Amino acid sequence: MTGNKSQTRSDATRKAVRERDSICRVTGSRVMPRMRGTNYTGFEVAHIFPLAWAVPDHAPKFPPPIQPYLTYPKLADKPRNALLLRADVHSQFDDYQFSAKPIYLPNAHSSQTTLVWWLMRFEQSGASSLPNRDQPDFNRLRCLRGPATELNIQDFDSGLMDHHFTVALNWHVLGFGTEA
């Protein structure tokens, strides 16, 4: 792959994710409106599963629920494999400095559970753009923010996010990402 974004990234996906999210899904930073249209400066569409990894030889190595995304970059470049993030958060997400894992919390007022995405830093000094970086966070639970003001909108593929979390965990905790 040459890295030429115009060959692998769809304008339709970028537009759909921008319209769907309208905020950084991790920090909650809002995209600012302006007279001539929305200002997306400083925001990027981040792919949960990297487009560069979407090749036919890799697909059988992954769990069946996410295999359809993995055969070709064109299939991976879909809104369900993407989030709108601030540019600095996008870089840290792509570098696996943090990831998200679903946690279902009991609801105190009913028998239902609430989906919360656990954002976890994998380096003590990493993911400096995450909210409340310098504050104690004893329960380590935060919500991935949904479109507009709603929380926990399941509009990205949770299997892809689970895979991202597994890669980050393997990279940092098991040492797969360290140089020999």
Automatic annotation (TrEMBL):
<dbReference type="InterPro" id="IPR003615">
    <property type="entry name" value="HNH_nuc"/>
</dbReference>
<dbReference type="Pfam" id="PF13391">
    <property type="entry name" value="HNH_2"/>
</dbReference>
<protein>
    <recommendedName>
        <fullName>HNH nuclease domain-containing protein</fullName>
    </recommendedName>
</protein>
<feature type="domain" description="HNH nuclease">
    <location>
        <begin position="24"/>
        <end position="99"/>
    </location>
</feature>
